[in-house]
């Protein structure tokens, strides 16, 4: 299955369709953009896995979720500066034969993540 993500908007109790996300491969302080996309109505990438098993490599990655623009587009009144702008998750892949699912639960004031299945 490779690498996938799913974002749930905990403020509204629904998937975060319309949120922009970027995936990077990282190596220390260096990062290389692999893919940028907008989440579909189910809060997922339209094309399925972000990386399939053949493309996923052992190493470190970064997902950047554009939280502030997503909530502003929904008309949520946010202070300036907002508490969260982007949520950045750095994670490692040790075994490319396994599925790495990186879900995000997010509101304008909090977020949570875990390695899903």
CATH homologous superfamily name? Transthyretin/hydroxyisourate hydrolase domain
Strand order of the largest sheet: 2-1-7-8
For the sheet with most strands, the description reads: 4 strands, mixed
- Our count of helices gives 1
CA-CA gap between termini: 10 Å
Mean of pLDDT = 97
Shape: globular
β-strand amount: 35-45%
Rg, Cα atoms, Å: 14 Å
Following the backbone from N to C, one meets helices and strands in this order, namely: EEEEEHEEE
User: What share of the residues lie within helices?
Assistant: under 10%
Quickly name the level 1 CATH class. Answer: Mainly Beta
> Per CATH, what is the topology?
Immunoglobulin-like
Task: Note poorly predicted spans.
Answer: none
- The total number of structural domains is 1
Q: What is the CATH architecture descriptor? A: Sandwich
Which structural category fits the helices and strands?
mainly beta
Count of DSSP strands: 8
Keywords:
6% helix, four-stranded antiparallel β-sheet, mainly beta, globular, 44% strand, Immunoglobulin-like, 1 helix, 117 residues, 8 strands
Model description:
Helices cover 6% and strands 44% of the residues. With 117 residues, it is mainly beta. The protein has one domain: Transthyretin/hydroxyisourate hydrolase domain (Immunoglobulin-like), CATH 2.60.40.180. It has a 4-stranded mixed beta sheet, with no helix packed on it. The longest helix is centred in the middle third of the chain and has 7 residues, at 67-73. The protein starts with a strand and ends with a strand.
């Amino acid at each position: 299955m490779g690498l996938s993500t799913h974002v749930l908007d905990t403020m509204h109790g629904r998937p975060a369709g319309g949120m922009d996300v970027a995936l990077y491969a990282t190596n220390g302080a260096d990062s290389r953009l692999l893919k940028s996309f907008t989440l579909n109505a189910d809060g997922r990438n339209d094309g399925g896995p972000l990386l399939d098993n053949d493309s996923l490599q052992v190493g470190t990655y970064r997902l950047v979720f554009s939280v502030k623009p997503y909530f502003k587009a929904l008309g949520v009144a946010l202070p300036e500066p907002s508490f969260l702008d982007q949520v950045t998750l750095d994670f490692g892949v040790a075994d490319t034969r396994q599925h790495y699912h990186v879900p995000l639960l997010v509101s304008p004031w909090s977020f949570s993540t875990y390695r899903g299945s």
